[in-house]
Design a protein that fits this description.
The complex is a heterodimer of chains A (295) and B (426). Chain A has 295 residues and is mainly alpha-helical. In chain A, helix 3 packs antiparallel against helix 4 and helix 4 crosses helix 6. In chain B, helix 9 packs across helix 17 and helix 12 packs across helix 13. The chains are: A mainly alpha (295), B alpha/beta (426).
Chain lengths: 295, 426
Amino acid sequence: MAHQNATKRNLQLLACTAPALIVFITMKIIPAVMGFWYSLTSWNGINPKKPFIGLENFREIFTTDSYFWDSLLFTFRYTIWIVVAMNILALLLALGIESQRRGKGVFRTLFYLPNMISLVIGSFMWNFIFTKVLYYMADTWGWSFLDHSWIGDPTFSFYAILTVALWGGTGYIMIIYIAAIQGVPEVLHEAAIVDGATPFQRLRSITLPMIAHSFTICLFITLNNAFQVFDVVYTLTGGGPGRATQVVAINIYEEAFNNSNRFGYATAKSLIVFAIVLVITSIQLTVMKRREQEL
Amino acid sequence: MKKEKTMKKITTVLVMLCISMMLLSGAGTKEQASPAKKVTLNVMMSFPRFTEEMEAYVAQFEAKMLEEKGIEVEVELEMPSSDQYRNILQTRLSSNDAPDLFTLHATADLPTYVEAGYVADLSSQPLAAKLYPDVRTSVSVDEKVYAVPFESTVWGYLYNKDIFEACGITAPDTLDEMKEVVRVLKQNGYTPFQLAFQEQWVPQLMTALLLGGKVSGEIPDWVDRMYADQGSYREVADIFEMINLVMSNGTPRAMETGSEQGAADFANGKAAMYIQGTWSAESILSVNPEIRIGVGALPVNNNEDCTRVNLATTTSLAVYADTPQKEMAMEFANYILDDEDSSALYESLKFNPVASCHDFDQYDWAKDASRYVAEGRAYMDLVLPQAVTNEQGKLLQSLYVKQVTVDQFITIMDQTFKAANKALAQ
């Protein structure tokens, strides 16, 4: 009887989630499984025939495709910078805003605002700033430190990309930190103040440990997003000059659509990236979860 | 109890309403269906800059069909931006949602799509007989016509005729003459070349022109040998002298200048020459309607036979092989080269004439370019793999910011070509 009830309940639950489940399966799971298959073919994306070639694509990636590994290396560099910079910046902003008595809402909205604009549009705005506004300032006001090739010189374009990515992404992470900070019980702070703790001591011993769970989620989000970055780089430099700022997502995109239409080969590359992201994020999650429990 | 009753009443009223609305709408469709046969054609084209002109032409077509055949045609015209066009087309073709007619690049894409079986044969259509022989070859695969040519371009580099006349110089025919032109321009305080390298396809135009000239003039079997893994960019290393001349005598901040900005700067007289096709003439004239543009052939070396302009058919319209509206789709394809209306269309689009039905005045620069063609100094687009063309553009950017040397350029290009060959073999 009890068993029958459980089955019935499960069926009911399944029925309730069915719409979402069907969308998820058709839009995510099935394409993902098909992707595994495509990576073993030399399909060119147009031809109805998809010739099976086994692991040939993977062999080629690991033996000859230096552009792919270069772009992967660049993506790693970008990811490290973004994860560190974005989290520090977001945390500082969150702490700063939460320590204000007035105007919290205004600042929160201001810093969150870039997140509401599509990053593609944001990048085009910044493109204008880097190619027009900064030069105007350099030429008319003599601010020669601005007179660099901001998106043409690989050294500077890396920082240009970081700037735009931080501008667009920090607000979102900041909101998560703000929520966590607001969740810290006020009594702890009051008790610490009574004990004569300085603001820095309170930050170190109360706030930071209490918001440890939000580090896990924020690191996860930034890591994941940074690894898959596409829009900022594509609209700002297009991966150029040459391939100097090519991230792995652009490398894959170009392989599939711009070069020889090698869909099968491009799918194989994206599977490798998928595996790397999977390993890194699961390591990160396990480590962080363990630390969280310790605290 | 009372509540239940009112609920029932409301439900009944709602159901009644629904039924009556369904009846009404049903009656409506019946009435509409009576006057004429209705056909919907879905047409996808890759030049949003001509949306207005094409929409007007489509309206003419719809009127003509209604008048002559009594068929009510509705043409849905879609113009995705040219950057995304190929992706959208590929997605729609592979998901059985193909447009009835769509544009393709005649040299780069048409053969692949024909081979995949997506394109209908137009050889027996009236339009095929009207095409100029050269143009007909350019839209044919195995001697069968597969597309209606829209855009056929003749292009080299653009120069500002006023500046050239002020300096007393004419378009050079050899590299030495070009060096002299550069010297004179600089002496008179002009920047010789407009650089706009932000988008990699713009610097790529240099390799396109120079390779085309060099290969057609001196080593006609180079492309074939490259496809057979038996050639090298070292054989065409001539091209780098001209590239170097352009890069070291151009406007500053090239990597921050896009093609449109370059056109605007050139229109405002910031440089005397702009290595850019005639397709940008419209942008240039919109900035400065007074400018007089000339078209010249870019010299590779001191062999005049290598100094050539490019002759190519690019955007052309194909009919989807399995379209359910084949008859109407063919009507539309034929209407593009209609004896009465086509001339006005091609003139308004500023395209070159492609068929015997075309009879209109050309712009000055088009005449300049046609002069080279008349003298037999044009080359047909070299058909290089897309990956190779893109790599050339990227490497030119890198060369400009001094991230690669000419030697590395050559080595990388040879490798890229071999890799592309391998991809083709698969």
